[in-house]
Amino acid sequence: MSKICDICGKGPSFGNNVSHANNKTSRTWLPNLQKVKAVRNGTVSTIKVCTRCIRSGKVTKAL
Fold it and tell me: What is the enclosing helix (H) or strand (E) of 45?
């Protein structure tokens, strides 16, 4: 299951946890994806969308 927004393409970003002793371990930041029934190309389908796209109105939810 991919962790990529179907509208904007936002995906995981990578970096490091840095401790007080300056030890570095890898970590990931995942986008806040929600499964939403939305109208796409005139049909209703379930898509995974980040909350930024839902909030900004890029998704038209199905009734």
Answer: strand 43-50
Q: pTM of the entire structure?
A: 0.83
Burial of 41 (0-12, 13-18, 19+ CB in 10 A): exposed
63/57 Cα distance (integer angstroms): 15
H-helix or E-strand spanning residue 9: none
pLDDT one-digit tens code per residue, 4-55: 999 999 999 999 999 999 999 999 999 999 999 999 989 999 999 999 999 9
With vertex at residue 29, the alpha carbon angle to CA 26 and CA 32, rounded to the nearest 5 degrees, is 160
Q: How far is CA 41 from the centre of its chain?
A: 21
